[in-house]
């Protein structure tokens, strides 16, 4: 999985959004359009490879034209070419956990 796979899935409307992601986006005042834009202009900052039956996952950081910092966690089903938005949040609300402009997690 790479960010190109996610962007392609977004462009082809091959995205599944978890209920949790919808709730978190609403709580942070983020639209799905902003989340998708953050992926298009973003970068993968963490990656967890597939393990057993679990899909590979990644954390994307992006700052779309709206100017907000956005983290989104995605899984990707290569067989179905489907991107799954697991959760999304504004990392500035937990800035003590991040450094390097919200790209690196602090070791606690």
TrEMBL record:
Organism, as annotated: Floridaenema aerugineum BLCC-F46
InterPro entries named among the record's database cross-references: DUF4258
One Pfam family cited in the UniProt record for this chain: DUF4258
Protein name: DUF4258 domain-containing protein
Domain of life: Bacteria
């Amino acid at each position: 999985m790479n960010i190109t796979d996610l962007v392609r899935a977004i462009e082809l409307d091959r995205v599944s959004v978890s209920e949790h992601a919808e709730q978190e986006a609403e709580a942070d005042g983020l639209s799905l359009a902003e989340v998708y834009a953050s992926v298009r202009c973003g970068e993968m900052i963490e990656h967890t490879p597939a393990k057993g039956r679990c899909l590979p996952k990644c954390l994307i950081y992006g700052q779309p034209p709206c100017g907000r910092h956005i983290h989104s966690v995605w899984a990707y089903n290569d067989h179905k070419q489907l991107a799954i938005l697991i959760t999304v949040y504004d990392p500035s609300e937990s800035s003590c956990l991040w450094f390097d402009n919200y790209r690196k997690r602090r070791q606690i």
